[in-house]
Amino acid sequence: MNGPQDPNPNNTRFEEMVDLPEFQLSDYLLLEGDFEGDFSAKTMANSEENSAGSSNGFAPPEASERRNSNICKRGKNKSGTGMRVAFRTKSELEVMDDGFKWRKYGKKSVKNSPNPRNYYKCSSRGCLVKKRVERDRDDSSYVMTTYEGVHNHESPSLVYYNYKQMGPVVDAVASGGWDPQAPPSHYSS
DNA sequence: CGGCTTTGACCAGCGC
DNA sequence: GCGCTGGTCAAAGCCG
Predict the structure, then answer these.
(1) Is residue A38 situated within a structural domain?
(2) Does the CB of A137 fall within 7 Å of any strand C atom?
(3) pTM of the full predicted structure?
(4) Residue A159 carries which DSSP code?
């Protein structure tokens, strides 16, 4: 199931969302995927607040990684899609419209967190992509969203995704040079 | 009536 | 080996 398949269409929609005033991307975590190297979790913070610790509910990478150990704990990707991406977003809304249709299938209170974790599956037939949503335990104004898997279809609402255009964005994020606040100039509407 | 959410139960992996 | 915890299932209820 490898190949030049859509790595994560949500990235595109998400990037558009963080351009909106009510959304503010804080952390971008590549937890698993078709990457070279042996890292299991990679943390990208877009702000100098990162170096200031968690004064703003913003955990340093070390802490973020530790928190992500929950996500990686099972170490198995039942959906077999091999791609997991986590975002931490400052948002009032718990469920963000990323262009896909999600069906809630579970809710679980997590240890060490006052906020429950919600589990969603993509509503599209045959699509095994899952999504976990929970509020940050340190600062409930932040929402942790974890996508697992790759959509085998396009967004039912709008399709902005273009793999060739997406590549440089991912590279920019990986190198810390991507500014989520910047206009989505790579879109050609 | 169909689709979605809710919620408790069950299952499986991991750490001790 | 056992207990804990996270993830999933499935039945029931709700809503459009």
Answers:
(1) no
(2) no
(3) 0.63
(4) -
Q: Where are the beta strands (DSSP E) in A33-184?
A: 42-45, 84-90, 102-109, 116-122, 130-135, 142-148
Q: Number of structural domains, chain A?
A: 1
Range of the domain at A121: 82-166
**CATH number, domain with residue A157:** 2.20.25.80
**Is position A177 within any domain?**
no
Smallest CA–C1' separation from A106: which nucleotide? C8
Q: What is the mean pLDDT of each run of 10 residues along chain A (189 residues)?
A: 42 49 62 41 41 35 36 40 74 72 90 87 83 82 84 61 41 38 37
For strands A102-109 and A116-122, give the pairing: antiparallel
| Bases of chain B within 7 A of a CB of the protein | 3-9, 13-15
Question: Domain for residue A94, yes or no?
Answer: yes
Query: Integer distance in angstroms from CA A70 to C1' B14?
Result: 11
Q: Which nucleotide is nearest to A73 (CA to C1')?
A: B14
